[in-house]
Amino acid sequence: MITTDILIIGAGPTGLFTVFEAGLLKLRCHLIDALPQAGGQCSEIYPKKPIYDIPAYPEILAGDLTDKLLEQIKQFEPGFTLGERAETIEKQEDGSFVVTTNKGTQHKAPIVAIAGGLGSFEPRKPPIPQIEKFEDKGVEYMIREPELYRDKDVVISGGGDSALDWSIFLTDVAKSVTLIHRRNEFRGALDSVEKVQELKNSGKINLITPAEVVDIVGESKLTGVVVKQKDKENFILEADHFIPLFGLSPKLGPIANWGLEIEKNAIKVNNALDYQTNIPGIYAIGDVNTYPGKLKLILCGFHEATLMCQSAYQRIFPNKKYVMKYTTVGGVDGFDGTRKEAPKAVIKSID
Amino acid sequence: MEQDITLKIKDREGVLHEILAPTDMAMNLMEVVRSYELAPEGTIGICGGMAMCASCQCYVESDHELPEMGPDEDMMLAEAFHVKENSRLGCQIQITPEMDGLEIELAPES
Question: Which top-rank group of organisms is this from (chain A) (predicted)?
Answer without folding.
Answer: Bacteria
